[in-house]
Design a protein that fits this description.
Chain A is mostly helical and about 150 residues long. Chain A contains 4 helices and 2 strands; from the N terminus they run αααββα. Chain B is mostly helical and about 120 residues long.
Chain lengths: ~150, ~120
Amino acid sequence: MVQIVPAAEGKELTAMPQYTQFQPKAYRPRMSAYWYLDQWHYLRYAMRESSSFFVAYFCVVTLAQIAALSAGPTRYAHFQALMQCPAMIVLNALALGFILLHAVTWFLLVPRVALRQMLGKPTPDMIASVPNFMAWFGATVIVALFILGVF
Amino acid sequence: MSSAKRSNEPIVWFLFGVGGFFAAYFLPIHIALYGLAFPLGLIRDPGYDKTLALLQNPLTRLYLFAVLTFCFFHAAHRMRLTMSDVLNMRHLNTVLAFLCYGGAIAGTICAIWLLVVVP
């Protein structure tokens, strides 16, 4: 038994029904260009991600330092004079702040992705991150002693 | 034979992860000393001769190569995602990827060249 709909009688069959009115649109929520200012968590996320610009900046500074060292004492003195400019001091202080934010958030993130069971119980975030902070302290002291010419 | 296209995301995420550790462990002390403490006179700068002698050590050059290379790629990946997500530049993703990873490759080549030609 086939039911015949009077309105469709005599019309051609199409592969898919064609709708011309009230076609659904994809839902695209509008997002402000300054969405990261809405909440402290968003701002902290944006600041943490922005640390990458300062990482790149200081890598370039280090390349410039190596080039100056290779070029001789006069060029290295110019590099040192450049680093003493107030603008560079401010930029380096900003870079240090952002990269410290990266370091702390990076070390605190590790316990969330690592296996962290002690005596059958999950360890708190801070305790699970302590080895990272200790290794950071150790690496900092060793690098500083090399740079200062103690070794 | 599978025709599925292999993603290169694992490679960039690997470089990002390793670079994140290098940037967190080693960059703060470099900035604190060369960027602030020495220029401000808080700690006496060891001077040209001692710094050059340190750079001439092959282990120092290997260390600097690793730090710079991984940090460049870490920064490149995060900068691409930051500009794409935070600054709403997702429509420029291909251009951003080209600029960021291209910059990281250029930085790595520069680092290799500078570390090889140290006197």
